[in-house]
C-alpha cells in the first residue's frame, strides 16, 4: 500500500490498521446493507479508515459505541454529540479526538445490545477470515461483548478495507478465538462472505496472559464475574495475583488503612464509591477490591454516609480504577463509582482513622 501510494494519513501504515485512499467511499457502501438500515446500536472501532462509518452512524442518529484504545480505561464509550450539533461538530465527533471529547463510559451493567459490529483489518479473505494487527484486541473486544450479553452468534460483523487487502488467507492461520466477518466493504465492492465459521463464544481465559490482566482492568472485572459464576478462568500462564496484593512491610502504612482526611480538597486522583449497602463493612469492601486488583494508595471510609474514597497518586491511576470497577457490586447493590468531585476536606469528615474490628463474614462482592 505504501509502495503503490494507496495509503493515506497516518503514514507509514505499518503496525496499525492501515488507512487508505478511498476509505470514505468504502464506508458509504454500508448504507447499501439492510443490516445497517435496521441497526439501532453499533460498535465501530476507533481506526482512521472507519471514520466514515462513525460519521454515518451519528448522522443517522444511531447509538454509537467505540472501544477505548487498547482497552486501558474500559471496554467502550458511547459517543454523545452536543444538542443541536452541526455537521461540522458531528464530523469532529467521528474523529479520534471527538471520541475523546464527546464520549461517556459504558459500564458492564449497562443494557447494551449491539446490532452491528464494524472492525478494521489488515487483510481479509472473501471467505470472511480476517487478520488484524496481531495483538488480538478486536477478537478480545468481541469475546468480552459476548460475556456481557451485548452480542451473539447472529450479530453481523463488517470490515472496511482497500481492494488490495482482500486476499487468500490459509485456514490454518485461524484459531477458535479469531473473529470472522460477514461483510467486506471496499471502494468498489460489497462482499457478502457467507462465513459459517463460529465466532468467539466468550473469553478464552486459557489464551489470556497475566500481562494482559495487568494491562486491561475491565478484563479483571469480567474474570471476577465469571469466576463467581463457577466458570473455569484459569489463565494461560497460571495463577494471577492482583497488583499490590503482596503484603506491605510492617513499618509502612497499608494502602487499606483508612487515613484521616487531609487539609485542602479531594484531588481529581480520588475515586468515590457510593451507594454502599447499609450493613457493609470496610473489610468486605477491601476484600472485594483486592479480588479485582484495585489497590489505592489509601482509603477513606465513610460507612454512615454509605461511601468510601480511594486515593491514588495521579489521575491516570484513578481512571484505571474506575474502568476496573464498572458494574461493581456489593451484595445486591450496584455501587456508584465516579471520579471524586473537588470538595473541601470537611466534606470528608467522619472518615475512620483506625482499622475496624475483623469481620469474619465472607465477602459479598459478586458479579
From TrEMBL:
Residues 269-342 form the RRM domain. InterPro entries: FTHF_cligase, FTHF_cligase-like_sf, NagB/RpiA_transferase-like, Nucleotide-bd_a/b_plait_sf, RBD_domain_sf, RRM_dom. Keywords: RNA-binding. Residues 357-367 have a biased composition (Basic and acidic residues). Residues 262-272 have a biased composition (Low complexity). Residues 228-272, 347-367 are annotated as: Disordered. Pfam families: 5-FTHF_cyc-lig, RRM_1. PANTHER family: 5-FORMYLTETRAHYDROFOLATE CYCLO-LIGASE-RELATED, METHENYLTETRAHYDROFOLATE SYNTHASE DOMAIN-CONTAINING PROTEIN. This is Methenyltetrahydrofolate synthase domain-containing protein. It comes from Odocoileus virginianus (White-tailed deer). The gene is MTHFSD.
Amino acid at each position: 500500500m505504501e509502495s503503490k501510494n494507496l495509503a493515506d494519513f497516518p503514514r507509514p501504515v505499518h503496525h496499525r490498521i492501515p488507512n487508505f485512499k478511498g476509505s470514505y467511499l468504502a464506508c458509504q457502501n454500508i448504507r447499501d446493507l439492510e443490516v445497517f438500515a435496521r441497526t439501532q446500536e453499533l460498535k465501530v472501532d476507533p481506526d482512521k479508515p472507519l471514520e466514515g462509518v462513525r460519521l454515518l452512524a451519528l448522522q443517522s442518529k444511531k447509538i454509537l459505541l467505540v472501544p477505548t484504545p487498547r482497552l486501558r480505561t474500559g471496554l467502550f464509550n458511547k459517543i454523545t454529540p452536543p444538542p443541536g450539533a452541526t455537521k461540522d461538530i458531528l464530523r469532529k465527533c467521528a474523529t479520534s479526538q471527538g471520541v475523546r471529547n464527546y464520549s461517556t463510559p459504558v459500564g458492564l451493567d449497562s443494557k447494551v445490545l449491539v446490532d452491528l459490529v464494524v472492525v478494521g483489518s489488515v487483510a481479509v479473505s472473501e471467505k470472511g477470515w480476517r487478520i488484524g494487527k496481531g495483538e488480538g484486541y478486536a477478537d478480545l473486544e468481541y469475546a468480552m461483548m459476548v460475556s456481557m450479553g451485548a452480542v451473539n452468534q447472529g450479530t453481523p460483523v463488517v470490515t472496511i478495507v482497500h481492494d488490495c487487502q482482500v486476499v487468500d488467507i490459509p485456514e490454518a492461520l485461524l484459531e477458535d478465538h479469531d473473529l470472522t466477518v460477514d461483510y467486506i466493504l471496499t471502494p468498489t465492492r460489497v462482499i457478502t462472505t457467507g462465513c459459517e465459521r463460529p465466532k468467539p463464544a466468550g473469553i478464552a481465559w486459557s489464551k489470556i496472559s497475566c500481562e494482559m490482566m495487568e494491562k486491561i482492568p475491565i478484563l479483571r472485572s469480567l474474570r471476577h464475574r465469571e469466576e463467581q459464576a463457577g466458570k473455569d478462568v484459569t489463565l494461560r500462564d497460571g495463577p494471577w495475583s492482583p497488583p499490590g496484593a503482596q503484603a506491605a512491610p510492617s513499618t509502612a502504612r497499608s494502602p487499606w488503612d483508612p487515613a484521616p482526611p487531609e487539609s485542602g480538597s479531594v484531588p481529581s486522583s480520588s475515586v468515590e464509591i457510593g451507594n454502599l449497602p447499609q450493613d457493609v463493612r470496610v473489610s468486605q469492601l477491601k476484600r472485594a477490591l483486592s479480588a479485582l486488583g484495585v489497590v489505592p494508595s489509601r482509603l477513606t471510609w465513610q460507612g454512615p454516609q454509605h461511601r468510601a474514597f480511594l486515593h491514588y497518586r495521579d489521575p491516570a491511576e484513578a481512571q484505571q480504577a474506575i474502568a476496573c470497577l464498572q458494574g461493581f457490586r456489593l451484595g445486591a447493590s450496584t455501587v456508584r463509582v465516579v471520579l471524586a468531585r473537588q470538595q473541601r476536606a470537611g466534606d470528608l469528615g467522619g472518615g475512620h482513622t483506625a482499622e475496624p474490628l475483623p469481620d469474619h463474614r465472607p465477602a459479598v462482592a459478586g458479579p
